[in-house]
Amino acid sequence: QVQLVESGGGLVQPGGSLRLSCVASGSAFSFSTMGWYRQPPGKERGLVARITRGGSTNYDDSVKGRFTISRDNAKNTVYLQMINLKGDDTAVYYCALFTIGGTTYWGKGTPVTVSS
């Protein structure tokens, strides 16, 4: 069983930065694709960024050039560095782990609020 715990969310002013972290339990992390998703208030959850076990990344167009996903397999941790934050980035951010067997695990989320 995999557990994912996100941290690093909070209140930030427009133009500010945050770094989210997600720590995974168990031994599946280094073999799995990891992703960050977000759910803005009143909207559906959607992909922010994803990183494969080999380090290949892809991003939603709305965050390209501002967000960077990275992983540290030794620490079972995936990060999301966010800069130049905007009001539209306000959402609950979720970490996801996709196993090679096709199972998806989700964290409970960390809220990010961008407001002056």
Description:
- By secondary structure, the chain is mainly β.
- It is 0% helix and 50% strand.
- The chain is built from no helices and 11 strands.
- The strands form 2 sheets. Strands 2, 4, 5, 6, 9, 10 and 11 form a 7-stranded mixed sheet that branches. A 4-stranded antiparallel sheet has the order 1-3-8-7, with no helix packed on it.
- β5 (46-51) and β6 (57-59) form a beta hairpin.
- The termini are far apart.
- 31% of the residues are buried.
Write the layout of secondary structure elements.
Layout: E1 4-7, E2 10-12, E3 18-24, E4 33-39, E5 46-51, E6 57-59, E7 67-72, E8 77-82, E9 91-98, E10 104-106, E11 110-114
Parallel strand pairs: 2-11
Antiparallel strand pairs: 1-3, 3-8, 4-5, 4-9, 5-6, 7-8, 9-10, 9-11
Give a concise summary.
By secondary structure, the chain is mainly beta.
Short key terms for the protein model shown above:
0% helix; globular; mainly beta; 116 residues; seven-stranded mixed beta sheet; 11 strands; single chain; four-stranded antiparallel beta sheet
